[in-house]
Amino acid sequence: MTPAVASTGVEAPPTRGGAATSGRIGDSPIRPDGTPKVQGRFAFASDLEADGMLWGRALRSPHPYARIRSVDVGPALAIAGVSCVLTADDVPGAPTYGLMSPDQPVFARGVVRYTGEPVAAVAADHPDTARRALAAVVVDYEPLDPLVDPARAAEAPPIHADGNVIRHIRIEHGDPAAAGDVVVEGTYEVGMQDQAFLGPESGLAVPDGEGGVDLWVATQWLHEDRDQVAACLGLPHEQVRLHLGGVGGAFGGREDLSMQVHACLLALRTGRPVKMSYLRDESFVGHVHRHPARMRYRHHANAAGDLVKVEAEVLLDGGAYGSSSSAVVSNAARFACGPYRVPNALIDATVVRTNNPPCGAMRGFGAVQVCFGHESQMDKLATRLGMDPVELRLRNALATGDVLPTGQRVTGAAPVAECIRAAVAHPLPPMPGDGWLDHPGGAGRTAERARVRRGVGVAAGLKNVMYSEGFEDDSEARVRLSEGVASVTCAVAEVGQGFVTIASQIARTVLGCDAVVEPAGTVGIDSAGSSSASRQTWMSGGAVLKAARAVADQVRSAVAERLGLAPESLTLTDDGRIVAAAVGGAAGALDMTVADAAGDRDFEATAVHRHRRTYPLDERGQGDADVSFVFAAHRAVVDVDTDLGLVRVVQVTTGQDVGRMLHPTQVIGQIEGGIAQGVGLAVMEEIVVEDGLVRNPGFTDYLIPTVADTPEVLATCIEEPEPEAPFGAKGAGEPPTISSTAAVAAAIRAATGVDVTRVPVRPWDLI
Amino acid sequence: MGGDVTGTTPPATPVRDTDADAVYRLTVNGTAHTVEGTRPTDSLLHVLRDRLGLPGAKNACEQGECGSCSVLVDGVLVCACLELAEAAVGCEITTVEGLTPAGAEPGDAALTGAVLTDVQQAMIEAGGVQCGFCTPGFVVAIHDLLDRVPDPGPLEVREALAGNLCRCTGYGRILAAIEQVVTVRGNGR
Amino acid sequence: MTVLAPTRLDDAVAALAADPSLTVLAGGTDLMVAVNYGQYRPAGVLSLRRVPELHDWHVDGDGSAAHVVLGAATSYTTLLDPALAALLPALAQASRTVGSPQIRNTGTVGGNLGTASPAGDTLPVLVALDATVELASASGRRSMPVSEFVTGPKQTALALGELVTAVRVPVAHGPQEFLKIGVRNAMVIAVANCALVLDLGRRHLACALGAVGPVPMRDRDAERWTAAHLDWGHRPRLEPALVDEFGRRMAAASRPIDDHRATAAYRRHAVEVLARRALARAWAAT
């Protein structure tokens, strides 16, 4: 049964990428799903429905830590319109799941470890019936004293059999006794940010009547979800088929399972399709958040301003379950020193388990937090040395050939100095005009111009692209050429970033014809890996490129055979044509698109892209853990009302290391979007947790920037091709979030003279 | 609201199931629809999406905080999630699906939905669409703004669209799309 | 659940009298959030959308006795209309800060009063202006000052079966200021707000603060003291000491709390700054 969106005349999801795209690599063609999106016809996972569908909803713990003495679902089952109620007893397969370690229960059994942990789920005829049913379930909780201070977690009694220390990493680089003429110290904090994607967690599970299930879902990694879901359902992979429902943004918040297992269990139990779509308050507790961090740093330098040593202690609060915490803390450790030459370093990074909301992947993945630390320190050092903060950074900037604190040598492009210079080269904005919206406080009319100060700040950061420490990383794609159109099949989760656009551009570039992207799913194609870690352009773009080239080779061989020539006598050009100076036997030269040359025949190739091997860090934090690194710098200009502490972010400029722009407009889109999220973390975004309870699970009080809050953004994209990357392109999604927050914080310091040590900065921090 | 993460809320008053059969007519995009089988407390957003086959208005928050459900009711920009559906009887409701390209008659079935308005075209050309979840709301709000104010200044645009959240684009390409529309419309006058 | 949509105010009042359990629906920007999240299930709804007199406004009286009578369902967008904004500038300033255009098109002054949030943006303006609410029920009509109508956080003096029909607001007789602090430039609940009005004819000053106590608050002593020290005749520049003292007195009168939006200490500091700036700006406009 194929689900359809509500009415006739609307495309059934998941749609083919949409109209075939024109435009080759380097152009900025319209995205193939753009037309249905602007018309409201694009089917997001929350738009799906099927005949006979039931609505599912999860019952969640009101306590951050409690024993479950009993669960009585009888009263819920008695309500008319309720089809079933499930608990931990109803999970046929693995009772737990998890991205890195399966430590998280499908339904809590015996104990709940965070406010919002699922305890049961119901399927009913209407979302309202489902809500009433959950209210009728009787759960007898015995509240326990929650562990909410991460600083106490390591010593506290374990709240999980796996212990309270999820991972500890130590990096020892160079001479531990090294010291500088000048030492600056600081303690810094980053609050808990949320991905706040607009499309709520949603999916539709449809049982196939033979014990298996099809699940349409908004996710970041179809095959990983499939593997985890199948394990929990106790079913073989062939019986669990995932299809991408349209995704309304992700930013890391959909890497972990949310409603997938629940919906499938309900569907299999009732024999009917089951839709689950979270309301916003449930969304805020239904996915992981960015790890809050506490960091202590000591930077040593000589009097001339060369960094001698960096020492850092980093503590991340992972919340109740592991998620991807062990990878996040590794990132925090590996990038704790920033994009600089640091001859000696001692980094101690730990992520702990608490009864706070679980934390995991969010765009920037550990590098964001430490960037606020190391960039705050660089400014402190510059002040102490009497040096310009930009000069200090340029003096120490990493370059190709330098060695990182993990002992890994940077062999690819590393235009750190260029990024910094480019960011500061943009003209500063003019002083504000006369309108209220030109001033801090906006239409609130609070500003008194004489009391507003402008400040400028600079920051730089780095991160890995692709997975690290030997984590398996590959992507498969298939390209089929038929009747003059190339179709691309790849399981990439299109979450808005525009992979569907560049996939078509790649196929078009290689084959010279219109290209379409097939719906993404787990059937008939292997994993593309997650849409995260800024990896899809490289890995899945690389797979599409490989498959398209294989098809072009096949076509060349076929043409050669037809003409009685050796294939090598025909040339495949960079713009999708087959050419030959003279083809002997046939009149004249050959010059046609690969697609035209294919004629009536169909061609198809499947390819897997892998990168070179990466290695885990050893006990001293040493190892070639990464394939490639990406760099960016930001400059921020803020105006601050010094009496009220209200901040207006006026302008953010950037120089970003992009390798190569496959779609310039989409790269700019990533930059502007990422900077907005960085600004949000700097001045307004924080999940407020008190005693394990989220105080602001809604857009009323979890504030993300509106268009009235975002600054002017000016971007310079530095194209120094990355040698190992397909097309030389690096992922562009994460760098904009990494040092933008630190730049805004630095600008606020400059404007106010206040030693800002925590983000998000609050008005009362500044007065 | 806020803070009730259990997924349950015991009803404040008992629900009278006999009221599940409210029947009324709503005029949407020029067409009168008979609405039946809804819950009486359903918002216009729910009725559009779940009863009338018009999923363009989106359910990002259902609190009036994001604008993803923006529609026009009697020509006025509102959040569909905050409109009680049955209280919109007698109003002219316009959704993204019903926006009419310039030069077409409202409700012209051949054109409505099949051809893009200039705002829609500019949004995709300028890169104003990433995940697309906020997009229908923005399209409706931008049409509303430019119909009322043909040549808005930059700060006026920002204030007019502050009720539409976007998490993907950072708004830059959306503002560029609006500039494009204003320029082209201006040249055409 | 019935949805009644009367077209005359008398019918609306009668319907409410016949069934006081009806939930009154004007803009619905507070009500529908609770409904959408299952926190409130009305047994019946009385929609005011079709009652023209509730959406209209007119001026009553003239000169120093002129009042604007706002129908209870007057939207924030209507309050921004230039003709109305000229008569009630601080109310227009406050309306501009509420929510978003979508919210402003829908939300109403009667709803702001009925919800009676401590942070409601029109409330300090109405309290500073000594506005009155007009109420109707089957028992007849009555009116009371807004300051008596709002009795506590989200509590009003509205009786069962009673409807807010209008708000009477004196026309401006001097400069007015409304200032609001939020952490974001739009769609934000006030951390603190302040309305200050000068009556040049009567040489009065009124200043009401919001979000720093259970209800919008004034300090009549501070107002009288300040008014007594203002040179209403010559209107020279204000002495900084006077402005500072006014701010201090307003801050001292406030009763802010800590919550997830802001600290009490910040709010107290903020209203001192807002009061100073409001006074200085209003006086400079004289």
Describe the structure.
The complex is a heterotrimer of chains A (767), B (189) and C (286). In chain A, the strands form 9 sheets. In chain A, strands 5-9-3-16-13-14-15 form a 7-stranded mixed β-sheet, with helices on both faces. With 767 residues, chain A is an alpha+beta fold. Chain A is built from 17 helices and 33 strands. Chain B is an alpha+beta fold and 189 residues long. Chain B has helices at 44-51, 118-125, 135-148, 154-160, 172-188, and strands at residues 22-28, 31-38, 70-73, 76-79, 92-94. In chain B, strands 2-1-5-3-4 form a 5-stranded mixed β-sheet, sandwiched between helices. Chain B is globular. The model of chain B is unreliable at 9-19 (pLDDT under 50). Chain C has 2 domains: 2-170, Uridine Diphospho-n-acetylenolpyruvylglucosamine Reductase, domain 3 (2-Layer Sandwich); 176-284, Enolase-like, domain 1, CATH 3.30.390.50. Chain C has a 5-stranded antiparallel β-sheet. In chain C, a hairpin with a 2-residue loop joins strand 6 and strand 7. The N and C termini of chain C lie far apart (54 Å). Chains in contact: A-B, A-C, B-C. The A-C interface holds A 128, 131, 279, 281, 437, 441-446, 448, 643-646, 648, 683-684, 688, 690, 695-696, 700-701, 703, 705-706, 708-709, 762-764, 767 and C 36-38, 93, 96-97, 177-189, 191, 193, 260-263, 265-266, 269-270, 273-274, 277, 280.
Name some characteristics of this structure.
B: 189 residues; alpha+beta; Ubiquitin-like (UB roll); DNA polymerase, domain 1; five-stranded mixed β-sheet; 5 helices; 14% strand; globular; C: 286 residues; Uridine Diphospho-n-acetylenolpyruvylglucosamine Reductase, domain 3; Enolase-like, domain 1; 13 helices
Helix content of chain A: 10-25%
Distance, first to last CA of chain B: 48 Å
Give the biggest sheet of chain B: 5 strands, mixed
Per the CATH scheme, the topology name of the largest domain in chain A is: Aldehyde Oxidoreductase, domain 4
Radius of gyration of chain A: 27 Å
Largest contact between protein chains?
A-B, 91 and 72 residues
CATH class placement of the largest domain in chain A: Alpha Beta
